[in-house]
UniProtKB/TrEMBL annotation:
Residues 14-149 form the Molybdopterin cofactor biosynthesis C (MoaC) domain. Its EC number is 4.6.1.17. Belongs to the MoaC family. Pathway: Cofactor biosynthesis; molybdopterin biosynthesis. It comes from Halarcobacter bivalviorum. Homohexamer; trimer of dimers. This is Cyclic pyranopterin monophosphate synthase. The lineage of its organism: Bacteria, Pseudomonadati, Campylobacterota, Epsilonproteobacteria, Campylobacterales. It is an enzyme of class 4 (lyase). The active site is at D127.
Length: 156
């Protein structure tokens, strides 16, 4: 089996997608961050010293989604048509579940963009309350679903 990101001389290359058909592509990813009750309460009560944590995390997730090709070497720069970020409170953990959906009409998928957005959003939460809890854990960053493209649909 030939690897798609190596040329005939085994040098890294970006895959040529110019012959692929444009299709509507959507990817949804999610991840969790668990933390101490004090950190959770500071976020919920909007008393974290660095400002509004969840709002900042949403902006960071959107920015991370848009910057994926600058961070992941073989990702194509994409003309995204939509990005949405939702954060669900998980008081039983305590913590938060962050979800990103990315979409476009294009020749390559948006899974990496959704996953990168989730990762950057969760890292932003960590950064903003690390003074309260350095033991926070980011976990379960995963693709939830994708649609479009040659490989078809996927749902976890």
């Amino acid at each position: 089996m030939k690897l798609t990101h190596l040329d005939e001389n085994d040098r890294p290359k970006m895959v040529d997608v110019s012959t692929k058909n444009e299709t509507k592509r959507i990817a949804v990813a999610s991840g969790l961050i668990t933390m101490s009750q004090d950190a959770y309460d500071a976020i919920i009560d909007n008393t974290a010293k660095k400002g509004p944590v969840l709002q900042t995390a949403v902006i960071a997730a959107i920015m991370g989604t848009k910057k994926t090709s600058e961070l992941i070497p073989m990702c194509h720069p994409l003309l995204l048509t939509g990005i949405n970020c939702d954060i669900e409170e998980k008081p039983e953990l305590p913590g938060f579940k962050l979800m990103v959906s990315a979409k476009l009409n294009g020749q390559t998928g948006v899974e990496m963009e959704a996953l990168t957005g989730v990762s950057i959003g969760l890292l932003t939460i960590y950064d903003m309350v690390k003074a309260i809890d350095k033991s926070m854990v980011i976990s379960n960053v995963q693709l939830e679903s994708k649609s479009g493209g040659k490989s078809g649909d996927f749902t976890r």
